[in-house]
């Protein structure tokens, strides 16, 4: 069992499992002892009640005997009734059977010296024809006794008392005591064994930590979950969402209703939900969630004793701004590369001009320089004059140089018109830069002539951007999937894979209330002026 680092932070006391075992054993001992006491008291009452019923039944049997009624009428009742009483007492295991007159004068008694004496006890109810039972201390000591009338033609002619000494009742109860004790000991043993098993399981599940340690762990982990700047999701083995911290709720727009539901039905984007539902390890995968670009990592969370994982842990990092900045950086890098290439070409051209002058041909040098300047300046003037948004103009110039180096002709429509500040520069770079990159790659995959065309215009309340290439275009069956994260016609490359560029384009266009049409190799983006202006403000 691994030891928790919290052991060094909290003084070692009884663990939660040990405390629970001690508490359970105490409770079980009290309950079993109380049960035994209750059983003993109940047995005592039951024994007394059984003795009461027994003496009452025997007394009625003796009182109803014709021999007893005849003996009461005999000249010497004692001589007739004494053998009968002794026999009944012996056969029924009672301690005394006393037959007496209606006034309580004894005719029989186990102690012969008591014959002729007055009966000690209550007889008034029996004198009135009703039976009674009581506990009374007589000549033989405390006893449970019954007194019933002897009736002859409805007239009380005598009384019969049958009794069992309480000492005999106690002896019977003591005979039941070993059974009660054995039963209680077995119950205590079984309960203690069950408590020990529960304690052992709890010790394993809690890593033998105490309540204070568990409380401190919970406080620390809860503070970490709320303070960490990464989104965190915990999924069980069935893929149900068990926990989402504050950052995960913000990034994925989750609420409390998502907890306990399968991750695929918790309101996550479809592609992300399907990816997480598999439970497979993932490292730095890029996914889109609404307007955000998220980096996903997924790994197993611990393991059960049998080796099965407890679930999975998912971390989310927001790379929306980073991805946009990376796109802008790519554009700037491309622009820098184009400047480097142009500087290299300019140096070559300058050497050519100088060489022509050294050869004594200044007219040819002047013509060559003028032609090169017209070609370079023509593209710059056309782009800058048509595209008033400076960031987009720089992007187009950079992409044109990059395309030229790669053997692709990037043509900007002469009537292209993009007003300044109509869209955020970052979104323009995302939309146009990714479409041009895909178009250049598609043109390179096709036979010459390789060409990419860019056009832009304001049509009423809409800004229309169009990028077309000389490539084969998309299969109509793939148009619906073109803007899904992870879909691409090119092989995967890098940890993030492909299929991100067009997904980012679709995200940016939707963010500004627009739409995209695909016809073969031509992509047309429409963004309404009202939506764009609202995005800027």
UniProtKB/TrEMBL annotation:
InterPro entries in alphabetical order: HATPase_C_sf (IPR036890), HATPase_dom (IPR003594), His_kinase_dom (IPR005467), PAS-like_dom_sf (IPR035965), sCache_3 (IPR033463), Sensor-like_sf (IPR029151), Sig_transdc_His_kin-like_C (IPR004358), Sig_transdc_His_kin_SpoOB (IPR016120)
Q: Which reaction does it catalyse?
A: ATP + protein L-histidine = ADP + protein N-phospho-L-histidine
For this protein, the Enzyme Commission number is 2.7.13.3
**Keyword flag Metal-binding:** no
Q: What is its main location?
A: membrane
Question: Which intervals hold domain Histidine kinase?
Answer: 345-519
Which Pfam families does this one have? HATPase_c, sCache_3_2
Name the domain of life: Bacteria
Where in the cell?
A: Cell membrane
Per its record, how is this protein called by name? histidine kinase
Q: Which organism is it from?
A: Dactylosporangium darangshiense
